[in-house]
Amino acid sequence: MLNFLLRRLGQSIVVLFLVSLIGFAALNLAPGGPLSQYALTPGMNQQTLNRLAEQMGLNRPLPVQYLDWLRHLLRGDWGRSYRDGQPVLTIIFSHVPATLLLMVTSTVLAISIGVWVGVKSAVKRYSLFDDLATIAAMIALSIPTFWFGLVAIYLFALKLHWFPAGNMYTMGNGSLLDVLHHLVLPVMVLTFVDVAVWSRYMRSATLETINQDFVKTARAKGLSPRRVLLRHVVSNALLPMIALAGMQLPAILGGALVAETVFTWPGMGRLFLDSLGYSDYPVVMGLLMFSAIMVLLGNLAADVITAFVDPRIRPT
Fold this sequence. Notes:
Blueprint: H1 2-29, H2 36-39, H3 46-55, H4 62-74, H5 88-123, H6 128-142, H7 145-159, H8 176-210, H9 213-220, H10 225-237, H11 239-262, H12 268-277, H13 281-309
Helix pairs in contact: 1-13, 5-6, 5-8, 5-11, 5-13, 6-8, 7-8, 7-11, 8-10, 8-11, 9-10, 11-12, 11-13, 12-13
């Protein structure tokens, strides 16, 4: 296990280096650049822009800028925002709770509902429930998340007035009930899409497990159908879902970015788009690296948990 962890750690470092290199190059080679926002300031001239570029170190060759940024990153200094001068990590951590609240809530609901729907669809294969679940999953997977969000806002916020159209809380309120009230629509949209993924995978895993020899042996011993299903079928079908959880983390982050944009939820996804609009490259790079670290840690945790749960695939 120690060799496995060290090997994965080495792979993660290489991946993070490539992500940082490609991200830095893509941002700095894009048209406009960090000074594009300053150029729109009334009275701004080229001489002042050149002085700003020198102060910010943007007049140096791109490889030199990257090495300097990487050196500060390894020291724990992720830079400062071009917009307000705050440390990048301070800005990111101030938006992390909102994203975690949205992601954790929607993911827990999606896994719970998806596992139940997938198991029931497999047990009642080709039944009306299975057909309806399949149709609903195909619809959820075929239509973009932002469209679901806009429809939800139009129906439940503008027409029925059941839920707020956006934001995390009402100005001047911010109580727990108020936050939960604002949380309903974005969580509903993300959960509906994620349930389709989890239910399809769980259905396939259950169908594959339900015909295994050890399940037939359990039935031959006279165990009740419920005990066979819960103890032998579902428990073994859940093993591939642990690995899927790690693989789904980038998709969950992407879905949260769309939902935060549609519902103006003040999380990391919203911050990422706002920072791109303002050409705030230190914050964009910080978010890129932070998200990459989260994804790699999620995949590593899924592999480790799977190895402990199933000794047959435990690395040596």
